[in-house]
Specification:
2 copies of one chain form a homodimer. By secondary structure, the first copy, chain A, is of the alpha/beta class. The first copy, chain A, has helices spanning about 1-5, 25-35, 45-55, 70-75, 85-95, 95-100, 125-135, 150-155, 170-180, 200-215, and strands spanning about 15-20, 40-45, 65, 75-80, 100-105, 110-115, 115-120, 140, 165, 190-195, 220-225. The longest helix of chain A is centred in the C-terminal third of the chain and has 17 residues, at about 200-215. The radius of gyration of chain A is 16 Å and the shape is globular. In chain A, about 55% of the residues are buried.
């Protein structure tokens, strides 16, 4: 197992753009990657709100803000952390800027009612597969679905205790994203299958929300025997 | 968190029936529950094959075999470990015998092709929801999807290193199944949400199969912060 992880590429020089980076999930990831020493660019429809988010990441976490299109153009790797209802339209509008890049989709299509969260049906199968359909010239990888924004943003939490499941059909791209996950203290990137099996990874976030509610926790997953 | 687990009922006296207990998953669970001191009855369409399976569990694991209908009638709690393609018909035929009981569904509706495993669509949403639809007088709980049969059957493995996600809409029943999971050395039962969120837990087995293939492992899941 250790061999598999040792084979991952050096990604320390990659700049990371985060579309929809003003939401808690995006900000949390921005904060952890900035702390890990990456150049981080937070994207939003408004450059001003993006800059505000970038300025709010706390001590030691330096990032800048820009409009989503500039972020998509400038960053080496782009994380999609937009709300599900803007997912397709946002990606369609950035197709040219995202061409040739690794695009990491962490969006969870969920609905909420009195009984909690549940998975929404997605025509393409999953948010990640929708991204792949909309972005034929990008390499889409699904990852970072289960990281608690609360944990990522908590200045008291030094180690993020979970594995990030990384799904995709391109080995080089999934290796890169596994390596990126490992840049965050405590996190590990574990290959989790092909993109066609992304639906259940996204949907599993509904279960984690149930777990959090029952146990008053910020639950994550670890994969055993790997 | 410890409080939550301490509140679980004493289930040491419950007898456990396993429908489709001649398959590896069923035999593996039978073996571990027998080792934990439970009365275990393995079910099959053929009482003879059931008895053969019961006799094959290895040192210290005592069980008996019977036809599925007898198992469903006699056992306090019944685990459904039949192949997906016989799932609905088997349960329909046992509706009366299973009335009033906790029925634990661990069936994963999966397809396989050259690229590995993938989730099959299920009209009712999931195998567990299909069981609930077919067994209106039983209390269906979904659990034990991710335990590797190889690990369960390996006489060299003393501790099973994973959490069992337990899903259901009846608190007393999910508590009982969490407690049953904890009877197996190393295992823990963690509440994982309502039955409507069972699909992704079943489907996640496809990802674990991908992980096993990539890392040459028998992967399981642990829930952090719980």
């Amino acid at each position: 197992m250790s061999t598999q992880h040792a084979d991952l590429p050096d990604v320390s020089g990659l700049s990371i753009g985060i579309l929809g980076g003003t939401g808690d999930q995006g900000k949390g990831l921005a904060r952890r990657f900035a702390l890990a020493g990456h150049e981080v660019i937070i994207g939003s429809r408004s450059a001003e709100r993006a800059q505000q988010a970038a300025d709010s990441l706390g001590e030691g976490a330096t990032a800048r803000g820009a409009e989503n299109a500039a972020v998509a153009r400038e960053a080496d790797v782009v994380i999609v952390a937009v709300p599900w209802d803007g997912h397709k339209a946002t990606l369609e509008s950035l197709r040219d800027e995202l061409a040739g890049k690794i695009v990491i989709d962490c969006v969870n299509p969920l609905g909420f009612d009195k009984q909690g969260a549940y998975a929404l049906p997605v025509e393409e199968g999953s948010a990640a597969q929708q991204a792949a359909a909309v972005l034929p010239d990008s390499t889409v990888v699904a990852a970072f679905h289960h990281v608690s924004a609360v944990v990522l943003l908590d200045p008291e939490i030094d180690q993020v205790d979970l594995d990030v499941l990384v799904l995709g059909d391109d080995r080089e791209a999934t290796n890169t994203v596994q390596a990126l996950a490992a840049r965050v203290k405590g996190m590990r990137g574990v290959y989790g299958g092909r993109l066609r099996n992304a639906h259940q990874i996204e949907a599993l976030t509904a279960n984690l929300i149930s777990i959090n509610r029952r146990y008053k926790a910020h639950a994550g997953l670890r994969v055993t025997d790997v």
